[in-house]
Write a structure and sequence with these properties.
The protein has five helices and 19 strands. The chain has helices at 12-37, 163-174, 187-199, 210-217, 320-326; strands at 50-56, 62-64, 68-76, 83-90, 93-101, 103-104, 110-117, 123-130, 142-143, 147-152, 232-237, 242-247, 250-256, 269-272, 275-280, 286-292, 295-300, 313-316, 332-336. The protein is elongated.
């Protein structure tokens, strides 16, 4: 049998053209399979990532204090073991960086979520970033836009309960105002608000207005200790009509009082508790702690918002048991300032700790040996 060699084949150009075409089709098919297996990526680069976020709990670009704002996100394409970093900001400062796991969703998407409670501040912001994935199924980096919203503060009413009241109570505690625990606006909280208003030269009442709530949540208006060198001691800035218990420069309990009226002013100076008397005495003084002669800190049935006593530091009956337990024999007491400096302007806020009245020395300008 005679076999023609390839070199003698008459249609050699057509044969080579057909072979090249078949090879091109095969290569295209392989490339397409690799492209599909790589989630749409070409062999020359990673798949393009798309990450997005949306916010839940925002109304008119605002969120009420102590409410929860949820950050809901999506990422495409999805890969196993993906994570996204979520960056949270308050008043322009980063407060949290969270590494959040991405979960598989329908199609080629993944989803993620996290949340934050509004515990103060004025303005919050968030953005998310996916840092990409290397390897056979590589994915590129991507980041979301920066979303911003503001905090909405509300006034609180007596007997109101809920998350906002509970958060406000904790914020008062951080300022050393002591309304105990709970989720309702009760009498203890009213007295703490009164003490806060006195400290900041506001109208002397127990109204927790929106202004008060905002300032307290943001830690504004705390007391600055005058005599930290006294250690664990009590200060009575008479211009503020409060008493402050402090360990060094850190106050830990503040209560509203009524000091001595103009005809029988509270003695000024530095003393120490020397005698404690539980229960009521014949003058209606409740759980008294004396710091010089007949001058004492005690509970009383009447505690107006102005100096009214015979020289003692009157406290509310409900507050006095705790005050009595705090005071100890030998604890220093420092009374100072001008209790009669004039009318308090409503909502006129001064720097806390300033304008506390004159420091008239160890005896406050009075003779400590004079008859009470």
């Amino acid at each position: 049998m005679h076999v023609r060699t390839l070199t003698n084949f008459a249609d050699r150009p057509r044969f080579f053209a057909l072979a090249l075409a078949c090879a091109a089709v095969a290569l295209f098919s392989l490339a397409g399979s690799a492209h599909a297996a790589n989630g749409g990526a070409t062999p020359s680069g990673p798949a393009k990532a798309t990450v997005k976020i949306k916010l839940k709990g925002i109304h008119a670009r605002q969120a009420t204090v102590m409410s929860k704002v949820s950050i809901l996100g999506s990422l495409k394409p999805f890969r196993n073991l993906q994570t996204v970093k979520v960056y949270l900001y308050r008043d322009g400062k980063r407060i949290s960086t969270r590494k959040v796991k991405v979960h598989r969703a329908k199609g080629n998407y993944g989803t993620f979520r996290t949340s934050i409670y509004m515990r103060g501040g004025t303005r919050y912001g968030v953005h998310a970033k996916y840092w990409g994935k290397a390897g056979k199924r590589a994915v590129s980096k991507d980041a979301t836009e920066h979303k911003v919203w503001r905090v909405r503060y509300v006034g609180l009413a007596h007997d109101q309960c809920g998350r906002v009241v509970a958060g406000f109570r904790k914020a008062l505690n951080r300022l050393a105002l002591v309304p105990a625990q709970g989720r309702c606006f009760n009498g203890k909280m009213e007295r703490a608000v009164l003490a806060y208003r006195k400290l900041n030269d506001m109208t002397r009442n127990s109204s927790a207005s929106r202004t008060i709530v905002k300032r307290v949540f943001n830690g504004n208006g705390g007391y600055h200790v005058r005599r930290p060198e006294l250690g664990d001691h009590m200060e009575a800035p008479l211009s503020k009509q409060v008493i402050v218990f402090s360990k060094g420069k850190r106050p830990y309990a503040i209560f509203p009082i009524a000091s001595g009226k103009a005809s029988t002013p509270t003695i000024l100076g530095t003393y120490s508790f020397y005698w404690k008397e539980p229960g009521y005495n014949s003058h209606g003084m409740y759980y008294s702690s004396y710091f010089i002669r007949g001058y004492a800190t005690h509970g009383y049935a009447s505690v107006p918002n102005y100096p009214a006593s015979h020289g003692c530091l009157r406290t509310f009956i409900s507050d006095q048991p705790r005050i009595y337990n705090i005071t100890e024999i030998g604890m220093p007491v420092y009374t100072f300032g001008n209790a009669f400096r004039g009318r308090v302007a409503p909502y006129r806020v001064k720097r806390s700790g300033g304008d506390l009245g004159p420091d008239l020395g160890a005896t406050g300008g009075l003779d400590p040996t004079s008859k009470y």
